[in-house]
Amino acid sequence: MPSCALMRVVWCVWVQLRNAKGSMRTAEVRLRLQKTMQRDAAVFRTQESLENGVKAVDEHFKEFQDVKISDRSLIWNTDLLETLELQNIMDNALVTMYVPRSDPLLQTRLVPDTCAAFARQCVLPVLEAGVKAACGGT
């Protein structure tokens, strides 16, 4: 059973996304992220492509903070669903680009323990900061 704190975080993120009034449509951000991942996070990647990818994914993360939802309904809201899916894809894209760049050995293979340690040390603080902002700093 999820804790009350976890449910509060999920609720805050959901409310923030549902009421997003930015300037970019979800599909625009998703398409840009998709092209970046295809170009810079392919199976065969170089240090240069990883560096370019990190910069691009960071830019897409900023774009996602400016996403807008035009449908505010609670029934059959595909706009919200696509935005929630993009949130998940964005989190995975950040990890996919940052983990191999942080350790040259990981450019060719990912080690689960290293990925988990990286996520705890680098990714979770970023996500927690986003959640605090979504929840009004609490």
SSE layout and pairings?
Elements: H1 4-18, E1 24-25, H2 26-40, H3 47-64, E2 67-68, H4 78-102, H5 112-134
Parallel strand pairs: 1-2
What does this protein look like?
The chain has 138 residues and is an all-alpha fold. The chain has a single domain, classed as Methane Monooxygenase Hydroxylase, Chain G, domain 1, CATH 1.20.58. It is built from 5 helices and 2 strands, in the order αβααβαα. It has a two-stranded parallel ribbon. The longest helix is centred in the middle third of the chain and has 25 residues, at 78-102. The relative contact order is 0.14.
Give a brief description.
The chain has 138 residues and is mainly α. It has one domain (11-70, 77-134): Methane Monooxygenase Hydroxylase, Chain G, domain 1.
Which features would summarize this protein structure in a list?
Methane Monooxygenase Hydroxylase, Chain G, domain 1; 5 helices; 70% helix; mainly alpha; single chain; 138 residues
Question: Strand sequence of the main sheet, in spatial order?
Answer: 1-2
In the CATH scheme, the class would be: Mainly Alpha
> What proportion of the residues is helical, as a percent range?
55-70%
Instruction: Assess the beta-strand content as a share of residues.
Output: under 5%
- Principal-axes shape call: globular
For the largest beta-sheet, the strand count, sense and barrel status come to:
2 strands, parallel
* CATH superfamily membership: Fumarate reductase/succinate dehydrogenase flavoprotein-like, C-terminal domain
Over the alpha carbons, how many angstroms does the gyration radius reach? 16 Å
| Span of the ends, CA to CA | 22 Å
CATH architecture: Up-down Bundle
**Which structural class fits the helix and strand makeup?**
mainly alpha
The overall strand count is: 2
Q: Provide the number of structural domains.
A: 1
What is CATH's topology name?
Methane Monooxygenase Hydroxylase, Chain G, domain 1
Annotation field: number of helices: 5
Uncertain spans = 108-112
Mean pLDDT: 79
Would you list the SSEs in sequence order as H and E? HEHHEHH
